[in-house]
Design brief:
Layout: H1 4-7, H2 17-26, H3 48-52, H4 57-70, H5 76-88, H6 94-101, H7 109-121, H8 125-137, H9 146-151, H10 160-172, H11 179-191, H12 195-204, H13 210-222, H14 226-238, H15 245-258, H16 261-272, H17 280-292, H18 296-305, H19 311-323, H20 327-336, H21 342-354, H22 358-370, H23 377-390, H24 393-405, H25 412-424, H26 428-437, H27 443-455, H28 459-471, H29 478-490, H30 494-508, H31 514-526, H32 530-539, H33 546-558, H34 562-575, H35 580-592, H36 596-609, E1 617-622, E2 625-630, H37 639-655, H38 671-679, H39 682-693, E3 700-704, H40 710-722, E4 727-730, E5 735-739, E6 742-743
Parallel strand pairs: 3-4
Antiparallel strand pairs: 1-2, 1-3, 4-5, 5-6
Helix pairs in contact: 2-6, 5-6, 5-7, 6-7, 7-8, 10-11, 11-12, 11-13, 12-13, 13-14, 13-15, 14-15, 15-16, 15-17, 17-18, 17-19, 18-19, 19-20, 19-21, 20-21, 21-22, 21-23, 22-23, 23-24, 23-25, 25-26, 25-27, 26-27, 27-28, 27-29, 28-29, 29-30, 29-31, 30-31, 31-32, 31-33, 32-33, 33-34, 33-35, 34-35, ...
This protein binds one DNA strand of 10 nucleotides through helix 13, helix 15, helix 17, helix 19 and helix 21.
DNA sequence: TTAGGGTTAG
């Protein structure tokens, strides 16, 4: 809304004025019911009751026409009645109100107020304020009703400036001590996201009633400051203000977010004692509170005893089971729902997301579309998150197009999820395009950009983004710095990383967490400073976790440092005795360094303890379907074709000078067998499948659960050159963009 | 006045 609206008159000339006059004039006499009683002294006894019985604009217009015919249309009370109907009734029409308003020679403050109320009611606060301005120009003084009507129109962050100007007028006209005006101000500030100012007005109010308290409590909920909602509720009790069901619904919502079962139970008891009338909304709020606090038995008890349930009751139960980890039970209730809207679908989709079942997310999303339920922005964020995890670029792109075409609200959450999805699918160009189009960005946006560039090996771009972020006065947080350190790590920028690590605390007051120390270990270790990396671990103010030791172990593998590897592996196995990945890494290191005796020892220990290696798994999306391959997989319907293509590829590669790199294979087997095992790695199967299933020159995108092995890395480079294909592999830690025989990681991984 | 969303070291 333009601020100028209060400073300058923008009084609207009713475009429909002429049209309305025509409508009234054209009403044929047959439409008009005979109003014989109008003959009895109309001036002294206006037929007010006629207006009170009006149910539609047609009836109102008929009555109005009669009044005009009888020559009593200038009665002020009749004007008020017509305008009140048009402005406040559900069937009302502001254009007609405007038409009548223009015929009144000197409208009184009541009529002005009613017009303001009407424009606010139809969500046109700018028209309301124009009327207000016009009223002042006509020397009509506002009264205590004027401001609540005006203020009620300001309900969003964008309206705050206008709201504040109206507040100034409230003070100027001396209405700042009126209960209703104060309440309207509290409400306006609360809805415009300024709960602290609302609180200030509330504290200064001469009188407060339960409605004002309710406005404050719901305002804190809206600002996600649930702890303060609860404090207000307690304070209200101390002041002896009795809560209404509106209060309790808000308080229960806060309890649900705070997981405050104790206060929740107190509210439940208050309701059970008959202090407020029970309602569906109240019951829903109760089951939500119990479900959120993990008391699913109580939540279900209430749900089952309800005589009437709605979508929300069911959704809350589904969500409750998802939260308690019972995804199958959640699904059972979801399947039983009599009807489902986008919120219920999203609740179920989020359940699968939470349990990392990303494929099921996409399956459910397809079902949702089959049932013709339109996804909203919340659904889209969930789907994009699943696409990011799966590397499902085509589905992700489809989502972006769907959002544009179907006017799904493209808010900051959606844009941030899009950026994250594009980066995690290796498409940095599209991520940047989304970023550039954004009208406003928050710290999540900037952080997603930094992390995104970092994992894609574009360290310089990541650091440029950090500079832009600081220039835009957005404070980085701990996650931002994880991205920054990660960018330095993936690009071997050791000194820069060291500097960022110290400036993080010195300049931004962010205390390093175990994750930040982990990044430093990675930064130093990967660059070959393995001893210094161990020093960092020793000096950490907290206990190093398994990730930190695993990072050091990974660095030892790259730099073939057996001694340090043994230290790291020992520490790791103490923390996680059954971690298969550690044993495999240690085996890799022993194999590379030709320490076969140690290798056998580890293998023996693994067998004894029943430790299994995590099977390598690669995903590749083809025409919107995600295909999954594990090492040696033969379950794919096109398996035969895939293996014969793979054979062909290996022949082509050998012809081009490829030598199989079996150095990391920990098995005590012959060279041929080793080569065979390597050739069945999941990423090779996915590459072969990609080559036979897509058009020439189309990029092959693969997501792998483990780190890509040296041999597969080499093969991918050659494939990109020999077949002229861009191959993008996202492994556990980063992206490898293979183009024309080389990789974006510059073999630094 | 009741249900839902985003970034995180290996």
């Amino acid at each position: 809304m333009p601020l100028s609206i209060l400073r300058k008159t923008h009084f609207l000339r009713s475009p429909l004025k002429k049209k309305m006059a025509t409508i009234v004039a054209s009403m044929s006499p047959t439409h008009i019911s005979p109003l014989t009683h109008l003959h009895s002294s109309p001036e002294t006894n206006p037929p007010l009751s006629l207006f009170e019985n009006c149910n539609s604009m047609d009836q109102l217009k008929q009555t109005h026409s009669q009044i005009i015919q009888k020559g009593i249309a200038s009665e002020p009370i009749l004007h008020s009645k017509i305008i009140a109907f048009c402005c406040t009734s559900k069937a009302g029409c502001m254009n007609y109100a405007r038409y009548v308003f223009d015929t009144i020679p000197e409208p009184n403050v009541y009529i002005w107020n009613t017009m303001i109320k009407g424009y606010t009611r139809i969500n046109c606060p700018n028209y309301a304020v124009s009327f207000y301005k016009e009223m002042l120009e006509k020397n009509i003084k506002p009264d205590t009703y004027t401001f609540p009507f005006l203020l009620k129109g300001y309900t969003s962050d964008a309206a705050l400036q206008c709201g504040k100007l109206v507040h100034a007028h409230v003070c100027k006209f001396g209405f700042d001590s009126d209960l209703f005006v104060q309440r309207a101000l509290v409400c306006m500030y609360s809805l415009c996201g300024q709960i602290d100012i609302a609180c200030g007005v509330f504290d200064m109010s001469s009188k407060t009633d339960v409605v004002s308290w309710n406005v404050m409590i719901s305002g804190y909920n809206r600002s996600k400051r649930f702890d303060e909602s609860r404090k207000f509720f307690d304070a209200m009790g101390r002041k002896g203000v009795l809560p209404t069901s509106v209060t309790l619904v808000s308080v229960l919502s806060a309890c649900s977010k705070l997981k405050d079962l104790e206060t929740g139970k107190r509210v439940h008891l208050y309701i059970m004692n008959g202090n407020v009338d029970p309602s569906l909304i109240l019951e829903n709020a109760l089951i939500d509170m119990y479900a959120a606090c993990g008391a699913m038995d109580v939540a279900l008890g209430i749900f089952e005893s309800m005589t009437k349930r709605d979508l929300i009751s069911w959704t809350v139960i589904v969500k409750g089971f998802v939260n308690s980890g019972q995804i199958d039970v959640a699904r059972k209730y979801f399947d039983q729902m009599p009807e489902r809207d986008s919120v219920s679908w999203t609740a179920m989709i989020d359940g699968y997301l939470r349990f990392n079942n990303f494929k099921e997310v996409l399956i459910l999303f397809r079902e949702m579309q089959t049932e013709k339920v339109n996804p909203d922005e919340f659904t889209m964020v969930s789907i994009l998150t699943a696409c990011a995890q799966l590397g499902a670029l085509q589905v992700g792109e489809w989502v972006e197009t769907y959002i544009d075409k179907n006017q799904v609200k493209n808010d900051i959450y959606v844009a941030n999820a899009l950026i994250d999805m594009y980066f995690k699918c290796g498409n940095t160009e599209k991520a940047v395009r989304v970023f550039e189009k954004m009208a406003c960005r928050d710290k999540f946006t900037w952080t997603a950009m930094i992390v995104g560039f970092a994992i894609n090996g574009q360290g310089k771009e990541a650091l440029d983004i950090l500079s832009d972020m600081l220039r835009a006065s957005i404070s980085p947080d701990d996650v931002t710095y994880i991205g920054v350190l990660c960018a330095c790590t993936h690009n071997g920028m050791v000194n820069e990383g060291r500097n960022f690590f110290s400036s993080m605390t010195l300049d931004h007051g962010i205390e390093p967490s175990v994750a930040h120390y982990g990044c430093m270990v990675d930064l130093l270790g990967r660059a070959g400073h393995v001893t210094e990396a161990l020093e960092v671990i020793k000096k950490m103010p907290m206990e190093p976790n398994s990730i930190v030791w695993g990072t050091l172990l990974g660095a030892c593998r790259v730099h073939k440092n057996v001694e340090m590897a043994e230290i790291a592996a020992k520490e790791l196995l103490q923390l996680e005795p059954n971690n298969g990945a550690v044993c495999v890494l240690l085996c890799n290191i022993y194999a590379v360094c030709n320490k076969l005796e140690n290798l056998r020892e580890v293998r023996h220990m693994m067998m004894e303890r029943g430790i299994k290696k995590t099977p390598g798994c690669s995903l590749i999306e083809m025409n919107g379907i995600v295909h999954e391959f594990v090492a040696g997989d033969q379950s794919h319907p096109q398996s035969e074709e895939i293996y014969s293509k793979l054979e062909e590829i290996m022949e082509d590669l050998k012809f081009a000078g490829y030598l199989c790199n079996t150095s990391e294979l920990s098995l005590d087997i012959g060279e041929e067998e080793k080569e065979n095992a390597l050739n069945r790695h999941s990423e090779k199967l996915a590459i072969a499948f990609g080559l036979i299933s897509s058009e020439p020159r189309v990029t092959i995108r693969i997501v792998k659960n483990l780190r890509i092995c040296v041999d597969c890395h080499h093969v991918a480079k050659l494939v990109s050159r020999i077949y002229d294909r861009e191959v993008i592999v996202r492994d556990r830690t980063r992206f490898h963009h293979f183009r024309s025989g080389s990789c974006s990681c510059k073999d630094y991984w």
